[in-house]
C-alpha cells in the first residue's frame, strides 16, 4: 500500500469561532498558508487539532472540509478509546483521506491490551494505517515488539508517528524500516532524520512557520546539511521561545498563526487555555522581530 507522504507532515490546528463551533473558513485559510509554505502532507484531527475535544460528527466534518481545501496528502487521525468510534471514523475517512492514524488507547490498557485494541481495529480497517505513539498523553507505549507483530499480520499497517522521547523505543521502530515508515513528532529532529534512521517529521506547533521544516526537509533531501542546519537553528529558536511561554503547544500555535493570518481565531476548547492578550503580543513581537524575516522563500 503506497501512500505519498512527504516530510514534513504538518498537523493542522482546528480553529474555533466566537460561537465555539469549528470555523471552517479559518481552517481553509490555514491550509492555504501551509500550501504556500510548501507543505504537501497534512495530518487532520490529531493532537494539535484537539481531537479529544471534538465530537465524532465534528471530526467527520473537519475531515471533509479539510479535504475540500487541501490538494496534497491527507492523513486523518481517527483514534479514540472506543474501537467502534475508530472504525466508524476510518470508514468515513476512506472517501476523504489517503491514510489514517490511530493513537494508542488511553486511560485503560497495559501492553497486552494495547495490542489487542490495535488488532481489533486493523481487522476492520483496510486502508493504509499509521499507529501513533504518544505516551506522555496516553500513558501507554506502543512497543517495537507489538509493532513488529502487527506489521507482520496486517499489510495495511504502513507506518508509525513516534511522539515519544524514549529513543530505545524509536530504535526498535526504525528497525522495522523499510517495511514501516517512521515519522518523529519532534521539531528539533528535522536536520537529523538520517542520523536517527527515520523517514521524516510531523510538526504541530511548527505549523505557523512551516517554511522552516519544509526548508530543512528539502535541504536534507539534497544532502545540503549546512543549509538544513541553518534552517534548523532558526526553527530551534522558535521552539525555544515556545517552550518559555506557559501555554500548551496548541494554544501557542493558534496565536502564532494569528500573526501570519490576522484575525485567525485563537480560541481553544476546555480544558486547554487560550493565549491571553499579553501572551499574544509577546508571540506576535517575537515572530515579527526574530523569525518572519528569516523564513526561507520557495
From TrEMBL:
Residues that hold pyruvate according to the record: 48, 202
Catalytic-site annotation from UniProt: 132 (proton donor/acceptor), 161 (schiff-base intermediate with substrate)
Pfam families in UniProt: DHDPS (PF00701)
Keyword Cytoplasm (UniProt): no
GO MF entry, a single one: 4-hydroxy-tetrahydrodipicolinate synthase activity
Keyword Nucleotide-binding: no
Coiled-coil region list: none
Gene3D superfamilies listed in its UniProt record: Aldolase class I
Keyword entries, A-Z: Lyase, Schiff base
Assigned protein family: Belongs to the DapA family.
Name of the featured protein: 4-hydroxy-tetrahydrodipicolinate synthase
Protein species of origin: Nocardia puris
Biological classification of the source: Bacteria, Bacillati, Actinomycetota, Actinomycetes, Mycobacteriales
